[in-house]
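Good morning C.,

I know you're traveling, so I'll keep this short. The sequence:
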Amino acid sequence: MWRVIREIGRERIDKLFRMAEQIFHENPELADRYVEIARKISMKARIRIPTKWRRRFCHKCYAFLVPGVNCHVRIRSRRSTHVVVTCHKCGNRMRYIIRKKE
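The tokens, ready to paste straight into the viewer:
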């Protein structure tokens, strides 16, 4: 039973993020709402949001992020090389470490 629920949840989360990506330029508020719905589905079904989508929304205000439009992306090399994504809506900074492939 849980396997089916989680599979449906994964499909819906993926679809909601793809819809948010498509509609963002026309209606950013609706894209943010899609992100909120996807988060609620992931919490209810106890599913992790895939990494490719987890990095596309602000973890403080839950806004769908599009680089150069409502966030900016910087690469820093202090300590360890990492990417810093700054949300323009709330000012939150998210850091993602870049690991070298060997």
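Safe travels,
E.
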